[in-house]
Amino acid sequence: MRIAELSRISGVPVPTIKYYLRENLLPPGELTSPNQASYDETHLHRLRLIRALVDLAQVPVAGVKDVLEGLDSPTMPLHDKIGRAHRAITPQRQLPSTSEAHDAATTQVQELLASRGWSVERDAPALNTLIETIAALRTLHQDHLVDFLDSYAAAVESFTEIEVAAVTTRTSSDEIAESVIVGTILGETLISSLRLLAQESISAKRWTKPAGN
Amino acid sequence: MRIAELSRISGVPVPTIKYYLRENLLPPGELTSPNQASYDETHLHRLRLIRALVDLAQVPVAGVKDVLEGLDSPTMPLHDKIGRAHRAITPQRQLPSTSEAHDAATTQVQELLASRGWSVERDAPALNTLIETIAALRTLHQDHLVDFLDSYAAAVESFTEIEVAAVTTRTSSDEIAESVIVGTILGETLISSLRLLAQESISAKRWTKPAGN
DNA sequence: CGTTTATGGATACTGCTACTATCTATCACG
DNA sequence: CGTGATAGATAGTAGCAGTATCCATAAACG
């Protein structure tokens, strides 16, 4: 198919497709002549993947590029591909000169990892975010959430087990990487939406009738 | 305290504080003379809240403004304040002309809500995101995650119960609104980080040794 | 009491991201 | 053969989140 059809089916404007081609998010079509290329199902699929990551999961284009480079690599270990996905959805934060709250949070996180038996690299992108978030919650006098950290972690673990189980049902090793990455990134969007819906439902029941400010 | 000290303690540059003042994210200090104002603990706290939402939770400044306006309103029902928080973290998406996948996803979500007994407004911001995400997952041939939607929802419900329990331990109705909003927004960051850590740990165990790419 | 430094308020400018628009030289198609 | 689409290159745009500059004061210091 030509670019116009690709655009029509995917709903992505032609100039945007050209932009993705320029940025190497999308591999070039097969040139049939100096100014004619033909695109196929793989391009359509890739384009849909890009839009899902950008629109739904709010991943910046540069991050999508990293993720896709990982997916396209035949030699990169899956664990490293996952690392790219994680980095794509956890913005790099500059470390803020160890404060008191920061140190306390670091300790708590270390304890949590130990008690749960989670082993992660010390420069895992999410580690910093978790520490900063806990420190922020404490500084904002919202310790109550932090007190339940362990329950949260337990519930989260059940998520991840579900996910791993889901992924391992797909045995084709070609597909498993994309499955994991999409699951990681879009799964986050999915869970987040579910959480907000659950919250709205509970909030409606609890705080619309008794006018509790 | 003066602006320089506010800046020093919070780590936020003076020009940025001025920017937040301009945008009415931060209430003006008390003027002691035409060009001198003094700020207090409430300004510091508000500033920290802004930074947490902006830096940690990636909420756009305009969204933070909405959320804070809600928090500052003495008359707005809590449920509406929560609505503002939800809108702040779910970017408005333009609906993409009902497609086949979209319709199927809509049906599935309706069934989920019914089976879980969740009652939400039909224009809840998260509803659309959930539907779009499910549609995208199916279009990308990643149905496996969607198949576990109910398990996800169950686990998510346990989150929210934890949260509600945590919040209700704080009875001061003045504080409850901020608690809920901060819990909603930073809680998302917290859960997301935990999930990534759990995933990394599992991924390390599963896919670094057997080179399973 | 004069000089240096900081401040409030207003306006302008910047860097970054994610596109859009335009242009040119083909090329396909009726 | 003429109309319209296309690849590829270059330039321009809108929105966001700050930064920078300026001015007229006011505080702090010697």
Task: Give an account of the 3D structure.
Two copies of one chain form a homodimer. Chain A is mainly α. Chain A has helices at residues 3-10, 14-22, 41-56, 61-72, 78-89, 100-116, 125-139, 143-147, 149-168, 173-207; strands spanning 30-33, 36-38. Chain A has a two-stranded antiparallel sheet. In chain A, α5 runs parallel beside α10 (173-207) and α9 runs antiparallel to α10 (173-207). Chain A is elongated. The mean pLDDT of chain A is 92. Chains A and B meet through α3, α5, α7, α8 and α9 of A and α3, α5, α7, α8 and α9 of B. Chain A binds a DNA duplex (30 and 30 nucleotides) through α2.
Proportion in helices of chain A: 55-70%
- Chain pair sharing the greatest interface: A-B, 102 and 99 residues
Oligomer: homodimer
- What is the overall silhouette of chain A? elongated
Note the gap between the termini of chain A: 58 Å
Low-confidence segments of chain A, given as residue ranges, are none
User: Biggest β-sheet of chain A: count, sense, barrel?
Assistant: 2 strands, antiparallel
Neighbour order of strands in the largest sheet of chain A = 1-2
Query: H/E element string of chain A?
Result: HHEEHHHHHHHH
Please state the average pLDDT score of chain A: 92
- How many helices of chain A? The count is 10
> Care to count the β-strands of chain A?
2
User: Structural class of the secondary structure composition of chain A?
Assistant: mainly alpha
Q: What percentage of amino acids of chain A are in beta strands?
A: under 5%
What is the alpha-carbon Rg of chain A in Å? 21 Å
